[in-house]
Amino acid sequence: ELLSDGIHEGTNRYEIGNAQLKTENSYQIDASLSYKSKHLEGFVSPYFNYIRNYIYLQPSSEIIDELPVYHYTQADACLYGGEAGFHLHPHPLDWLHLEGSYSNTFGTDKKHNDLPLIPSQKINTTVSAVFSRKKAIKKISIYLHNQYSLAQNCVAGYETATPAYDLFNTGLAFELELNKQKLLFNVTVNNLFNEVYYDHLSRYKTDGIYNMGRNFNFRLNIPLQWDRLLSNLNSF
């Protein structure tokens, strides 16, 4: 922040420090309200943060070594927002789970100018089903997750706005038991409909490189039962 003057490989930008920066001082107030019953949970968590001499990276119109130049600067600023969510598993459909959440962050300086690099507002919704069995396959779960990211138009000078995007993810997991050994299988598909999008905080957005498209993941987890392994070793 003080002495930078070069390419930051991890962020894909050229950063220039500021030796005149002062120490930050932060004052924050936050609250949390939650509710929980047998079939419904919910929460709301707002916050407000006033920061004197807030240090941040300010984008500019400069280009060095084909990379955008960001300058470290500071100003008195306010960061505020919150998160709210719920989890519903209605009776008698105890195997069904409905979850949702909303989160936002806003940031302005004392002149009410928008701060750079503030994430977009997001709405997450998940529908899942979990089934327990007494056979070889002990537990099966499946889910469908949606993340809707609102357009981010509250941007600083020389920072570009980001359009809204809508992502769907799905997955299947099951627990198998063979000869008293548990095997956990998990298959997921992220960005199911191959949405073409930028995340507002993507480090490659300025190069025109989109976020990851449709991708598949497979995972096998074998929990080791050490007592059983040691017992088998001692039997030799």
Automatic annotation (TrEMBL):
InterPro entries: Beta-barrel_TonB (IPR000531), Beta-barrel_TonB_sf (IPR036942), TonB-dep_rcpt-like (IPR039426). One of its GO terms (molecular function) is siderophore uptake transmembrane transporter activity. Keywords: Cell outer membrane, Membrane, Receptor, Signal, TonB box, Transmembrane, Transport. Gene3D superfamilies: TonB-dependent receptor, beta-barrel domain. It is a multi-pass membrane protein. It is found in: Cell outer membrane. GO terms for cellular component: cell outer membrane. One of its GO terms (biological process) is siderophore transmembrane transport. Residues 4-192 form the TonB-dependent receptor-like beta-barrel domain. PANTHER family: HEMOGLOBIN AND HEMOGLOBIN-HAPTOGLOBIN-BINDING PROTEIN 1-RELATED, TONB-DEPENDENT OUTER MEMBRANE RECEPTOR. This is TonB-dependent receptor-like beta-barrel domain-containing protein. It comes from termite gut metagenome.
